[in-house]
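note to self — DONT lose this again. spent like an hour looking for the file last time. sequence + predicted structure for the chain T wanted, 590 res
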Amino acid sequence: MTLEQTFAFAVIALMMAAFMWGRFRYDLVACCSLLLALALGIVPFDKAFSGFSDDIVIIVGSALLVSAAVARSGIVNVAVKRFFPNLTAMRAQLALLLVSVAVLSAFIKNIGALAIMMPLAFQFARKSGAPASKFLMPMAFAALLGGLMTQIGTSPNIVVSRMRQEITGESFTMFDFTPVGATLAVCGILFMLFFNRIVPKRGNNNASIEESLEAAPYSSDATVEEGSSSVGKSLNEVLRNGDGEVIATAVIRGNAHLRPLPDIVLQAHDTILMEGTAGGLDKVVSAAGLALSGKPILLERGEDGEISAIEAVVGTESRLVDLSARSIGLFHSYGINLLAVSRQGQHLREKLSEVRLRPGDLIVIQGNDRTLPSLLPELGLLPLAQREILLGAPRRAMIPVLILVAAMAATAFGIVPVATGFFAAAVAMVLFKTVPLREAYAALDGPILVMLAALIPVSDSLRTTGASELIAEWLGAVAVHLPPFGAIALILLTAMAVTPFLNNAATVLVMAPIAASFAATLGYRPEAFLMAVAIGAGCDFLTPVGHQCNTLVMGPGGYRFSDYPRVGLPLSVLIVIVSVPALLAVWPVR
C-alpha cells in the first residue's frame, strides 16, 4: 500500500467518524475533509472544486426546486382529496407512497419519481400527524429498490448490460432484471412497512420558526362565487379540505348571519367566515374554488415584481389602528389586500373588510413584492420572520406537472442527459412563475449542495490513488476460495461498501470485470455475478451521499448522517439474504 493510498483511506475513515459523531454539521465536515485531502496531496488543487460542476449537484439542486414547485402548485393536495380522501392511517399512507415510488422508479429516473412524490409525503404527514421523516427515508430507499426492476430503472443496470455484451456478446434485456429486482423491491417495501419504528422521528431544523408561526390562528373570509364547485356542497365538505386546521365561525347569506352548521348547503354569493392556520385556510380556499376578501391584484404590462403575501404586526402607532380595510380604502389607496387577521384570544364574527384593526393584531396582506416592503413602515406595520405564505397566491396547477413530465420524457428517451433535463425543468419552473424567484434559492438547500460538492473530489481520491484497485486485489484473493453463494455474496457486499465513495455507475465499471473474472476462474457463468454488482451498486442505503435520492431527503427530513445506517444496515442485510438465493435460482451459475 502506497502512502497516498493510506492517506486516502485515513481521510475517508476520519470523515465517516465525524459524520457519525454528529457534533458538527455535515457540510462543515465535508469542507474540512476536502481541506485535509488537499493538504495531504491526495486531491490536486486544480480538482478541489470540481464537485461544484458535477452532474450530481445539478441534479439534486434542480430536483429540490422542481419538487418545491409541484408542492406549491396545490395539485398534490387536490389529488389526495380526490383519490384518497379517507386515507389517514400512517401505514396505509406509507404503503401507497412506497409502492408508487418503486413502480415509477422502474421506468423513470428514480430521483424524478422521488421528486414527484415528496409533496404527497408532506401532505400525508400533516394528515396523519406523523413527522415527514417517517416517510421520506423509506421513500428514498423504495426509489432505489424500484430502479432494480428494469434495465432503464437505474444507471448500474444499463452499465452492467453493456459489460455483459462486451464479455458474452449478449446484453441483458429490458425485463431480465425484473424477477430478482421485483422480489427485492417487495421484500424491501414490506420491511419498511413493518419495521418503520426504526426510522427516526426528525424535524426539519430550518423550519422551527415557521412551525411556531404556522400555529397562529387567523380569521379570514371567502365567498362562494357563481359557478364554483362549492355551490350545492355542505359546509363540512368544503372545510374538510383544511385537514382539520380550519373551522367556520359563520356563514353570511345576504344580510343574515347563519350558524355554521356542518350540513348547511352553500349557495352562490355566500361568504364563509373561517378561522385556522394560514396553510389550512389556503388549502380550503384553493381546493374549494373560493374567492378571498379583496379585489384581484394584477400587474401592469412591464411592471416588475410578483404578487405575494406577507405577515406583519399592527404597531401601536400604525395608521390602520381603529380602521377597517373598507373604511381606509386599503386596495384603492395602497394597492394591497387584507387576507387574514389573527387577534389573540378572540374569534372575529364579521367580514374581514369590516374588522377594525387593533395594535398587536397579526395580519396577512397581499400585494406586489416590490412595493410591499416600502408600504410596511408607511402603514406602521412590523414585518414578521419571512416564510412562504401561499394564501391568495396565484396557482398554475398543471404547469409544474407538464414541465416535469416533459423533462422525464426527454431523459427517458435519451434526448438530453438527466442533469440537463432537470436543470431545464428547474429553470422552466421559475420562468413560468410556478416558483417565485425569491423562493427558488431557498428551495435549493445550500448546505446539502455544499456537502455534495465538497465530498465528490474526496471520494474520488480512492480511484485516483489506486486504492479502489487495491480493494479489488484483496477481494480477488478471498473470493477464489469461496463457493458460488459465498462469492456472489462477497461481490454484492463489496459493491454496497464501495458505491458510497464512487458513484454507482463507476462502481459497476470497477466491480463488473472483477466479478466476471471470478466467474471465469471458478468455471461459472457470469450473469449472476454481474447482476450482484448491479444490485450492490444500486442499493446504497448506508449514507446520505452515495446516491442523490438519499441526499434529496436529508434536508427536508431533518436527518442526521447516523440515521441512514440505522435503517439502511438491516435493510442491506435483508437485500443480501434475499438476493443471493434469488440470483442463483434465476441465473444458474452452471
